[in-house]
Design a protein that fits this description.
The chain is 60% helix and 0% strand. With 188 residues, it is mostly helical.
């Protein structure tokens, strides 16, 4: 058993299903969870700082700060329920969110991150705090796309249905791809 398998086994949730996560690299799973956890703490702190817009009578920034703090709390509940163990329903919500496909989590995090940008666009605390939640959504979106195809799969797709091992077309043929005949694009 390799070191990454041992770490994955230690970090996995008890009774959690890891079937959909088999095709995702381990570093991307930890990047999503790590950015979600750290980013939500930062979003909560910067949301509190953003609420100081009340002193300048900027109601939009006040509402954006409140939204950002709530979004940070929702992300931390989903990504690191151990930080909120004193609330009894957190583990249930976290387990439900963990069972969802990656694209659901991506849409949820991006939707949580966007409203503060529209309410208080010029604040750096909005850009940085909600931007980290948005980045978590982007990472989960990339995880939903899955791994890149192998070289042979990509070559087969570029050949537009030409089976591997089929004879190459003549250089004058316009349907020849660069993968099939590199002499098509080489200078004389």
């Amino acid at each position: 058993m390799s070191l990454t398998d041992k770490i994955t086994m230690l970090m996995s949730r008890p009774g959690g299903e890891n079937a959909q996560k088999d095709d995702v690299p381990w570093w991307m799973r930890y990047a999503g969870r790590g950015l979600g956890t750290v980013g939500s703490f930062i979003a909560i702190i910067l949301g509190l700082f953003n609420c100081l817009g009340l002193l300048t009578f900027n109601v939009g920034c006040l509402v954006a700060g409140i939204w950002q703090m709530l979004a940070g709390f929702m992300v931390i509940v989903c990504e690191a329920p151990c930080c909120c163990f004193f609330i009894d329903y957190v583990q249930i919500l976290s387990d439900r969110m963990e069972a969802r496909p990656y694209w659901n989590k991506a849409i949820f995090y991006v939707a949580l991150a966007l409203p503060p940008f529209f309410l208080c666009f010029l604040s750096l605390s909005t850009w940085f705090g909600s931007g980290m939640i948005f980045g978590t959504g982007v990472i989960y979106g990339m995880m939903a796309l899955g791994r890149k195809g192998s070289r042979s799969d990509m070559a087969a797709m570029a050949a537009a249905g030409t089976p591997p091992g089929a004879p190459l077309a003549a250089s004058g043929d316009h349907n020849v791809t660069l993968m099939e005949d590199p002499d098509v694009w080489r200078p004389n």
